[in-house]
Every structure is written in C-alpha cells, then in structure tokens.
Amino acid sequence: METFERKAYEKLASWKDSSQGSTALLIEGARRVGKSTIAEEFGRRNYASYMLVDFSKAPDDVLGYFVDLRNDLDAFFMYLSSFYGVELHRRDSLIIFDEVQLYPKAREAIKQLVADGRYDYIETGSLVSIRENVKNILIPSEEESIRLNPMDFDEFLWALGEKPLSTLIADSFKKRRPLPDSLHRKAMRLFREYMLVGGMPQAVSKYVETHDFSKVDNVKRNILRLYRQDISKHGGSDRIRITSLGKEAKTRDYEDAFFWLSDAFITNDCFNSTDPSVGLSISEDHSTVKCYAADTGLLTTLALADSEQTGSNLYRDILLERIEINEGMLAENVVAQLLRANGHRLFFYSRSDRDDPSNRMEIDFLIVEPYENAAMKYRVSPIEVKSSKRYRTVSLDKFKAKFDKKVGTRYV
User: In which element (H, E) is residue 51 found?
Assistant: First the structure.
C-alpha cells in the first residue's frame, strides 16, 4: 500500500524533539487507520535503525523476553536485536511496539525501558483502553499519546496530487474569499469523491490506484467486517447493543455501548452543550448524544450495502447527483469527521419549547475559536450543515440573539 503524507507526522517529530527519550509515544486509532505505517515511516526517516515488534505475530519466545529478561535489559535488547535482525544504536534507534494492546505486559514495561534511556519507543494500538487490555497492568506515566484519525480532506487531496488546490482552499477560507467558479466546481467534485471514498488509507490507496468505486467498496467492506469481529470478540455483554439499536432505546441503556464504539475510534460522539460558552464541556449533557461514524466512506458503504457488492455505476450516479441519497446524513457526518480530525471535541446545541415554537432551535456543531471582531478573544462559533444550496439561517439567527456576545463567527 502506498505511503501517504499525514499531518500527524509533525506530531511525531515534535514528540521526538521535545521528549529526547524521556517518554514513549502511544499512537491510538481505529483499526486500519494507518498507525503502523506512519510509525514505520517515522522510524525509517529519523533514526539510524528501527525495529517493529508486531504483537499480532510475535512468537512465544519474544513474548517471554518481556517476562524472563525484564531485569536484564542488556540480554533483552541482545535477544530482540538478534531475533529481528536489526542492529540497535544507542539514542539513534526506534523500537515500535505494534498492536501493543495484544500484549499489555509490553506496555507496562515502557516505564523501565524509558528509564533505561537507550532507545526511543512508539506504541500503536486499537482498543487500548478497554478493560481486558488494561486490567492487571500499571499504565506507564512515561507515556504520551496522540490520536490518528482517518485521512482528512487535505490529506485526500494530497494523495490525489492536488496539494495546490488544498493550499488554495485554505487560503480562500482564511481570507473569506470565494474560489473562482471553475476551481469551486472541481473542489466540490473532489469533496463528493471524498465523502464516498472516505479517509481509510487502504480505501484511498485503492482509489488512487484504480478510480474504481466498486474495488474501493470491497476494501471498506473488509474493514467493516474486521470491526464486527472486534465487537464480537471484545464487546462483552454489550456486543448486542453495540451492533443494534432498538426503536424504543433509551440513552442510559446504551451508554456503555456508545462508550465502547467511541473508545474503539469507530464513532465520534457529539454531546449537547446546554449553556454554550468558552468551555463547552462545562454544560455537557451526557443524556443527549449524536453518534457519527468516524469515517464517512465506511458510512456510505453501510448505507449502500443492500447486496453483497455495490457497483461503480451506483457510486458514480451518486457522485454526479443522478440519484438521490440521504445527502444530509453524509454531509453532517463528514463535517463531524473533519472537525474531529482538526482536534475539536464535538458539541451541538438543542433547545425545545412546547409552549413557544420561536424558542426551538438546533445547531449542528459548536466550536470555540478566536473571533476577529472581539480582538481575537475566544468565542463560540455555531455551525449549520446544509446539503442543499437553498437554505435558511433561522437557528443561527436565534442562537446569535440568545447568546449575543458569547457568539463568534457563524458558519453554514
């Protein structure tokens, strides 16, 4: 699979420079999101050598080193180096513990390995925080963590060789200046492609290679099958609730299931902030949650999974707007995905009033950011997602009237 340029790479570089071996870095994220790939690429570019210990394949002999040789690190490194055929260089080698959740003792050993100081360490993992993967171990305080999300729209454009367009879009947004019509049409076509393909690197790679939506769909179905297997294996007593939601479902009955999916990075949870202000989580209402798929491409495949295979023609008809699909669902989901990729926790605002309909409003997303018209002080920016070119701004106007000086830029 092709290695793509990822924004998270800069976070790895920043960790290496600031840590200087004093901490290990844990890369968390959903399965197949590219954690191992970015760790290896970082090791290849930044160290004299790197070693990948893949705990999905490591034999019992290797696992035994973490128990039998834990108090003899000279022997521990000598055996590892010999088994993997990698020469290790003091302060210039990276050791990657891949799929570390499969062998929690290796994660626990990070404390001792970091204190030893010879090498740098990156861990990668999915389902890292679920009970069975952390019970009976001491989580090392010498561990930093970052979240790797599916590829965002910029990274999708980079993969397609459209980096100049990505730069132009960012510049146009910053200057609040529309793109020329021809480039706007091109950008919107590529954005619709992104909604259909999504940001899972294997799916993007297949699209770059073939531009065949049917082949991309097969890749995404395999990823979804993997997720279902994880749920069956690790979901415990919640596995039925994780995979199905009854019509009469109450949030309190499904709270653990929502948490499991979010903790596995399969979904992004969005909570109602009942009194929006800087510090949205202060008024976070956990009884009201919207649950978005972490990758819109996977959601598209789920939406079109009426048969064992979805043909390219159906995808192309949707791309060219020849047939209707729930565009609002996809548009709202992709905005949630991109906000999350840019480091925002997800919040919305909803108010109901049976007696006075004029008080009712729902804002799809809220973010906190500096506001130019308030000397760059932080304000709450409401975001409304519209899938049509025709829209009204009733809720945005009500929100501004209600919260007034707390409100920054309003987006559609």
Answer: strand 49-54
What is the model's pLDDT at position 338? 98
Give residue-wise pLDDT tens across range 49-77. Answer: 999 999 999 999 999 999 999 999 999 99
Instruction: Give the burial class of 257: count Cβ atoms within 10 A of its Cβ; 0-12 exposed, 13-18 middle, 19 or more buried.
Output: buried
Residue 79, helix vs strand vs coil:
helix
Cβ–Cβ under 8 Å, residues 348 and 291: no
- What does the alpha-carbon distance between residue 101 and residue 56 come to, in Å, rounded to a whole number? 9
Average pLDDT on 284-307 reads 89
Q: Decide if pLDDT at 391 tops 90.
A: no
pLDDT exceeding 70 applies to what percent of the chain? 92
Give the Cα separation of 47 and 40 in Å (integer). Answer: 10
Say whether pLDDT at 215 is over 80. Answer: yes
- Label residue 22 by pLDDT band (50, 70, 90): very high
Ordered alpha helix ranges (H), 235-345: 239-243, 251-263, 296-303, 312-319, 327-341
Q: Are 49 and 89 in contact (CB under 8 A)?
A: yes
pLDDT digits (tens, 9 = 90+) for 107-116: 999 999 999 9
- Angle, helices 8-19 vs 35-46, to 10°: value is 50
Euclidean distance between CA atoms 70 and 322, whole angstroms: 63
Alpha-carbon separation of residue 72 from 78, 105, 116, 140 (angstroms): 10, 16, 11, 19
DSSP state of 23: S
State whether the Cα torsion 384-408-187-193 is positive or negative: negative
SS3 of the chain: helix, strand, coil, percent, to 5: 50, 15, 30
Pull the structure tokens for residue 62: 């290797």
Contact 399, 382 (CB under 8 A): yes
Residue 77's Cβ-side half-sphere holds a number of Cα atoms within 13 Å equal to 17
Residue 54 buriedness (CB in 10 A; 0-12 / 13-18 / 19+): middle
Residue 255's Cβ-count burial label (10 Å; 0-12, 13-18, 19+) is middle
Convert 215-233 into a string of H (helix), E (strand) and C (coil): HHHHHHHHHHHHHHHHHHH
